[in-house]
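[recover] target loaded
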């Protein structure tokens, strides 16, 4: 099949979909990943065709005026900013629709578009692919709700419905309905309507996380599939820097610290806080500067700064990992089998942090705005010295490592395509 995946977002948002594209190509399919134009070289380095779209979410988020809105903690201003961002993305939607004309199957991310339109206008099968739980459930509150307390099943279900309305208002409607207007179609009124149409086509909803981390809720229907994580490992020719190897060999396993692209907060403060916590806890550290969440600063020989190292290679060599709770980083930390310390910045990161604590594989720490060096140092000491926590983390890592989320996702996509083809044949014979 010729498969198009639309992944709209930052590099961290795009990475699991690149992993999915690699898995599909290894199964013999031709895959194009439609993503921000500045990711084209990275995507192509894995042998995947990149379809460049003209809007760059990561660049938008780095604008000083946008960072100021995030720092203001003003929810109304943040909602308006997200709506503005999606309204600026219309060129990206046009780009994706052009790429869809050559596709036999389309996979849409939460912030993507075009799947249901391609299904109805071109008669091709589609699937939704999510890195976090999205279908309403009574099992736990919405992952998009920062507060993690629960008042029971009814409350949990209500949070999903309310957050879906908020997300539709801020992102879903502005993202989806430009294309529908262009095609002369009535605008979707909600996520519920869009997904109900998908369900009528038998469209699968694939979730790229482990059932050992979040079991499939009993009230999810048969189109919801928890496949396991979609890991993107390092490129085959990648080699670790010699100075990093020397640092790792010079002492006990260090603590990893990295905050992805969360530079809209205060990377200088975040770096100082991490360095002080390492000093207070008496631990060595590897700090990843990669996407701007950490900045290089003068420090002791017990700390090593590095720009970019594959998590799959680095994390198993760490005593614990400290990060922001992005879906991909959380999965990589759990797979490594070492304790995770998550200090959330935004949205679903708080939910992943809460899940890690409830699984007993990491200590609870405040979100980044309330975090202090002393609290982080205490968490580091717990992660390093709590033998029960370390044993739980190792056991969970072993379970995740024997899963193959990519294989399962590929199987489901191929099965859905075959079922769709059979239904189309039956329909054509009955007409």
């Amino acid at each position: 099949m010729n498969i198009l995946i639309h992944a709209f977002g930052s590099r961290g948002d795009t990475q699991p979909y690149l992993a999915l594209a690699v898995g599909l190509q290894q199964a013999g399919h031709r895959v194009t990943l439609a993503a921000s134009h500045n990711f084209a070289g990275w995507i192509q380095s894995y042998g995947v065709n990149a379809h460049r779209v003209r809007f760059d979410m990561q660049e938008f988020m780095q604008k000083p005026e946008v960072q100021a809105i995030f720092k203001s903690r003003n929810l109304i201003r943040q909602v308006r900013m997200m709506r503005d961002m999606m309204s600026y993305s219309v060129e990206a939607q046009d780009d994706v629709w052009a790429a869809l004309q050559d596709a036999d199957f389309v996979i849409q991310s939460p912030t993507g578009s075009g799947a249901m339109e391609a299904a109805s206008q071109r008669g091709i099968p589609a699937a939704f692919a999510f890195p976090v739980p999205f279908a309403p459930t009574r099992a736990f509150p919405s992952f998009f709700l920062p507060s993690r307390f629960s008042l029971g099943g009814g409350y949990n279900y209500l949070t999903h419905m309310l957050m879906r309305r908020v997300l539709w208002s801020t992102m879903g409607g502005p993202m989806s309905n430009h294309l529908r207007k262009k095609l002369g179609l009535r605008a979707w009124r909600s996520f519920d309507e869009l997904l109900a149409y998908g369900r009528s086509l038998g469209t699968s909803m694939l979730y790229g996380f482990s059932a050992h981390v979040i079991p499939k809720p009993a009230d999810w229907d048969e189109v919801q599939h928890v496949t396991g994580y979609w890991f993107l490992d390092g490129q085959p020719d990648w080699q670790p820097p010699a100075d990093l190897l020397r640092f790792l060999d010079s002492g006990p396993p260090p603590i990893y610290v990295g905050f992805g692209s969360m530079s809209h907060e205060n990377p200088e403060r975040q770096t100082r806080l991490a360095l002080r916590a390492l000093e207070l806890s008496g631990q060595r550290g590897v700090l990843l500067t990669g996407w701007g969440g950490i900045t290089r600063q003068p420090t002791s020989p017990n700390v090593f700064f590095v720009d970019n190292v594959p998590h799959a290679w680095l994390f198993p060599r760490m005593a614990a990992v400290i990060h922001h709770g992005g879906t991909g980083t959380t999965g990589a930390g759990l797979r490594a089998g070492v304790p995770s310390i998550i200090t959330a910045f935004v949205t679903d990161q708080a939910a992943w942090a809460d899940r890690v604590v409830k699984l007993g594989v990491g200590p609870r720490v405040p979100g980044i705005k309330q975090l202090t060096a002393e609290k982080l140092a205490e968490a580091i000491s717990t992660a390093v010295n709590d033998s029960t926590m370390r044993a739980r983390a190792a056991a969970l890592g072993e379970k995740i490592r024997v899963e193959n989320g990519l294989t399962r996702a590929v199987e489901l996509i191929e099965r859905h395509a075959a079922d769709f083809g059979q239904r189309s044949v039956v329909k054509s014979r009955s007409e």
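[recover] notes: Residues 2-229+404-430 form a domain with the Rossmann fold fold (CATH 3.40.50.2000).
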